[in-house]
Design a protein that fits this description.
six-stranded antiparallel β-sheet; alpha+beta; about 1750 residues; about 25% strand; eight-stranded mixed β-sheet; about 25% helix; single chain
Length: about 1750
Amino acid sequence: MKLSVFLKGFPFKKALVAVLLTLLLVQEISLRADPFLHSFKRLVLSDQFFSEGACFADIDGDGSRDVVSGPYWYAGPGFRQRHAYAPAATLDIRGYSEFFFSFAYDFNSDGLVDILAVAMPGRVAHWYENSGRKDGHWKRHAAIDDVGNESPAFVDLTGDGRPELVCCRGGAFGYAGPAAEKPRAAWRFTPITPARGYGGFTHGLGVGDVDGDGRLDLLETNGWWRQGEKPGELFEFHPVRFARSGGAQMFAYDFDGDGDNDVLSVQNAHGYGLSWFEQLVGPEGERSFRGSPIITSRPADSPYGLSISQMHAVALVDIDGDEVLDIVTGKRFWAHAGGDTGSQQLPVLYWFKTIRSPSGVSFEPWLVDDRSGVGTQLVVGDVSGNGLSDIVVGSKMGTYLMLNEAREVTAEQYHQARPKRRREMAHTPGTHLFSNHVRPTHPKTPAEELASFTFPEGFHVQLFASEPQINKPLNLAFDTRGRLWVSNTLEYPHPVGLEKKGRDTIRVLEDTDSDGRADKVTTFADGLNIPMGLYPYGDGVVCFSVPNIWYLRDTDGDGRADLRQKLYGPLGYERDTHGMCNSFTRGLDGWLYACHGFSNITEVAGTDGHRIRLHSGNVFRMRLDGSRVERFSNGQVNPFGLAFDRFGDFFSADCHTKPLSLLIQDGYHESFGAPHDGLGFVPAIMNHNHGSTAICGVVLGSSTAFGNLYSDSAFGGNVTTCRINRNTLVRNGSSLRAREEPDFLVSGDPWFRPVYLQAGPDGALYVADFYNKIIGHYEVPLTHPGRDRHRGRIWKISYRGSDLRRDVRAAASGYGAGGNLGQLPIKKLLGELSSRQLARRTLVLDELERRPVMEAIRELRARLPGEGGLWLAYAYRALGRLGALEEADLAAATVHPEAIVRVHAQRLLAETLIAGDKPAGGILAGFKDKDPMVRRAAVQAAASRPAQRLLHPLLALYQSTSRVDVHLLHSIRIALRNHLRNDEWFRGLMARELSVQESNLLISICLALKNRGAGEYILSRLDRLASLPPDQIGEYLRFASRYVAGESMSRVVSFSREKFRHDRNLQGELLEFIRQGLQERGAAVPQSVRNWALALAQGYLETSVAVLPRQSRLVAWDYIPHPSASRQENPWRFSTRENFRILPESTASAAGGRLDWSYERHPGMSRRQNPWRFSTRRGAGDGRQSILLVSSFPAGEQSTGIFRSASFKLPKSFGFWAAGHDAPPGRPLAGKNFIRLRDGGSGKVLRQASPPGNDIAQRIEWDTAGEAGRSVFVELVDGNAAEAFAWLAVGDFDIDDLNPSWEPVLSSYPAGEQKVGTYRSGVFVLPPKFGFWIAGHDQSPDEPLGGKNFIRLRDALSHGVIRQAPPPRSDNLQHIEWDTSDEAGRGVYIELVDGNTDSAFAWLAVGGFSVAGLSPSRAFGVARKGAELVGAWGLSELRPILVSLLKNKALGYRLRGELAAELARFRPDARLSTLALVPTLPFAAESSKEEALKLIVEGRVSQARAVLEPVMKGASALGQQRLARELSTEPAGAELLLSLVEAGRAGVGLLAVPGIAQNLSAVTSDSQKKLVAKLLVDLPPESERLEELIEKRKQDYVSETGRPVPGLELFKKACSPCHRVGKEGRDFAPNLDGVGNRGLDRLVEDILDPNRNVDVAFRSTTIVTRKGQVHTGLLRPADGQRLVLVDYQGREIAVALADVARRQPSKLSPMPANFSETLSVDQLRDLLSYLLSLRSS
């Protein structure tokens, strides 16, 4: 009898089992005194991504098990031979494989093992028939058309002896397998559950005997399905929540050894959690499960500090041979391209030893590997044949075989090797420790830091140098002697003054004993000022040190610089120091290339007088003798790192745009929104940013000795994530794409800051580690005391090879050899030109320049005849550098049989000075070359050496070039631009007959030419523009407006008005482009353009006038970026998804627009139900998707009926969008479906239109000027009862009241669920009840709410949260109503917050607000567009309409202020434009807003002060700055601003704000400038820390408001000695009654920075007595014999006048500046809460 059965009836079952287990455990230990320690030897079969799953089987029948992964099988037992059984391609880790699972089985019973490959969930699975051959692809057969579930199992579920594929299909779980008689036929799927909506991406599946009846049951997330006795019947469901939101592979196993099977399940395959569920059997046999976590999302929950995310693959197997099954699982790497939880954490693989003990079951985690992770499948078994279970992994990290090895150890050794319990995290990379700008950890020693690195097998990392040898390394460079030069800083980030001597150095590091570590350090130069770029040259080094580029020379040979020669400068450094001039790199052409860093502006010239201007990021080049400097490329933001490849292409790393860019000479790159040159930006080679905007340094694999597998790699330092990233450069023609690879090196130390990378002549990669707690410039103040200035390391990474790598051989002998090139004899030195290392070859070029010139030339020429390939290409480069290249050399090189030689020949044609037109012949030959790299090099040569006879060949080459070769295409455009700058050549080309394609190409290049000829050419081809996107059309019209004569503009106007007559919004956009062009030219506005603007503006305004009187007051909305995505565009959109129905009725008649609509049965038709429905299934012809229309289609095309609007006043034009049909295509219209406009009195049809015969809505616009003002109505008529092509859909009327009141909701869904941001409404008055409709999610349905997505109601002044609600976890809108009677009447605003970056269940949609005007309305945009046209074009004729709109209070103050700003443009005066800001300020009183609007309308600018003074006085610092910045733009406004500051009504600090100060310096008189200087004399220095504190305290209060009652007590104690509220306190300081009206921003500033806004009446005075006593306080009225002061504690101090030695008035407040330091954060919250409650009506 089984023990479990015997114990069934005993209540003491558990206790007895525990005793017996203890006895068995003791017996086992006594029998096995010395335990075995299991470890895993990792074999790297491939570190490339081919699959997400792998398995093993004897594929070739040799008796050894082979490994199957993706399209390959690897032959055992050595696994060194790889065979492709299916087409193979290396994949991008951001994408997916067609091999999610691989299962091996002999499907056709031919004795050969076949392979079943399961692709992406929901797709077809195929099996590959083993051909019996090792080479060639196998025949593929479709197995099942739809494999659902992300963890399908291949197991004998039915017990028939043959395995089946268990998965989901058709909404149900089931199984499929081949028919024995027809194995190649499609498999039949047999459902075993009802269809419950299970699908492709359903998570969680397992097969096991749950109930112990001998039959396998099915496990899934929501429970288990019991297999019955009868074959073919559906399984019986038993609900149990085994996973929170979908697991991976699930198992039934008796973990606790009590005789029944428990369950193992991951809790979230894309999140966290692994649990086991103990099966409990009740007295009646009922089964239940009790869950216990093994690991969770919190490392603290694990005794081992372990937390693993994305455990998408699990296996259960006996790892250690104790006959108890253990768990194997790990982290799936980059399941969704890095968008998952914990995506940056280490891809670990663990086995969990199952330990049964008297206290229960525990699971001890043993690390298998930290660089493989798992995919979606783990297969475990004895591959090696040693009787132990090995592990096969296929993942985005590669394919790995973990061989289980056991060695006998003593008990003590076993104990020492066991996983240690810990409080800290087991693995730190990618955790919160790396997300703080100020790292919370302590510094590590170099040895500790080294121990935290993970990197690929076969590589070796060692410390080359560290503190105190160096401090903070910035750039690295090697010389030809193999010495490493380092620019080293203590000053960074603050340069010392130019009159002072810096403390920075350049040091030379040498490894004299070849042990891989620097043992000799020489300070070559000191006294430097943040040196960055450096290049060893001649007898010294060329370097940048603020503010110049220097040549530092050692003329006496003592190893120290004794001569400093300025080559170029000064260069900009004043704005920012974290880029400046860096990455000095000698090109093959002999120029020294460098990056110009962020923000700074440089104008610099060489001795030849050629001057360049560099603004922020650029790459430039210079001659080493100081003679000439040139800009090489344009754009980028903060490039920091340069490298070139074997073809001579340059690459840069940029901190803020792309981690890696291909640089094309004269090309433009993206740069924080800066424009390109008209040709567009150089096509990016990557769109990923490695999770950071701080990328520093780039080294190409071809410069290292890392082997062929890494030769196409690009390595970059990532100082934010503390990693070295890796990309593979993939070529398509001459173009490149950077394919993202797993990070090359990952540090577990958050202080690791790889700021620069350099390849050494020994083939190693050297890394400058700026080792620091803080790296950011703008995220953390530069003055932060946590910035480390003394620690720095340089790491050396070399490839030594490993027998564990089966994908590459060990490093080749001599490959990567170091040595001193300077000591090599000339013949051996020349032999190094064929080195496999690019870095070594380039150093040879440098060394040849140091040798006697004639000897070098002679030896080079002696070897030329017998050489080829790389050696010959670089020999020609050497001759070019030595000035010895001849025309015959170039002629031979351009026709050389090897492409690499021809590429460099074309580069040399561009660089070598050859007289006349001779180079053009070689360039033309390059255009026709079969190699795309040669063609691109030839085109770039043509760009440098224009020749007229190259023009037509360039046009022809463009047409014949593949559209995917984007870099060749862009290079051709640059070359054409350079040619067409020659007016004569351009005119000659225009005179010839060009094809349409050639003409279109020329049009696209015109924008870059910037001359009248280009503008005229565009005008002559206007018809070609109509099909372009609107922004491109606008750019062409802007260009034409700038460069062509005014009389030609009528053609532009006619084209625009005719082509886009049905789209006035587009016309408005085009008009703005034209206005910009005219403004840039400085020309008067042609009458034709003005007439166009007038007509368009009038249409907008008249529509607004017709609609707005019936509107409630409208409330504006603003977008606030989320802190984690400060540069992300607004994700909030108006959405009209079908399930976003605010009203419960679905028929249009039940929910008409603001103008009612009514349904009427169509005459002659039997009575039918109303067919008109709201629909969003149609797009519009302007590219919009899912626009809201009223449609007869949803009810069925045979339905008929009339839909009629209420009457309205007809404007001068009437437009709408319509879709639908009235007859099948090609047949005459039936005349039964139409839309018509009818007179409201007579019913006369004024206009009528048929449907456009299109499923996409088209714009229809009627000119109704002749009937304007009439009362009219609209009818939609569907009288066509045909079965097809018989429906009508109409909507998006210009008159907003006609549109359905099924209001679009505000939603973050359309922009993508990973987008985040806050949408904030304007202020409105809160009613007693506040309702709205809401849909959306904040976490997957089975996860707790994340607290990141919500709607909240906040007080407008205090910003305190009044109410908050999460999304309802529903796709359909739900109604919520808050009782706000206690807060009614307060000014409030709404915030819609989406802070959830997950890729699913992470959006919010809100609308249908109960407050009128709060929901979205088109009326806002229509009025704004009209007003903008009036202001921009000075359309005085329309001023009366604008004024009437301005007086309409329904618009709300935001829009009225915007309209007022346009009205103010008629009279340019900063006081008027500043008044227009007042209505938009939330803190301004309503009376001030109304008065400001009145003054603007009446033009009474002289009274502006009366309005602006109280507004300015009550404004926060940001509010004051906004007002002051506008006032400072012209003299009258500046005068008013100065008077307000002088009177204490505005803060003195405003005058020091950079933008305001700059404006004032331009518009003030000399006397006013003196007044500014006087006012600023006593201004305390601005503190970045104080600004941070103010912002932090605001956020503290906003996140958790205080308590007014304790705040009152605090006021009485701390504030009432000086301030009064009601009858409480004293009147020595400002009375605080109504102070709450100031709002939170101003109050926090007043408390934390009392000197910011000080009224003249409350400025302090300092008295010095004749005895030397000093008293400071407020001066109070006295008797004329004494001076009376009241100090900050409220004490009166009287001093006789006779005793006063000196009296000094101050601009400061008597309130102590450190008052806030006496308050805790909670006390400040309470005080603010009390003060904000003090409001006056």
